[in-house]
Amino acid sequence: MVSGDADGARARQQEFDLYTDARKRLSLSDIAFAKAAAAARLPGFPTHVRPPLVVAPPVYARL
Q1: Total number of domains in the chain
Q2: According to the lineage, what is the superkingdom (predicted)?
């Protein structure tokens, strides 16, 4: 994306809004959700997070 790319900016905002809406529907922390999303795209990506955060159950990696 380059400066002035309004269509590109709108597309990226729509992607971000979809991510945010999905994250808010689940009872996971932001970090656990992001790790589960990364694990869905990158097999073997670790989903464990430091305490006091919680591990995202494997089912979330398939959403």
Answers
A1: 1
A2: Bacteria
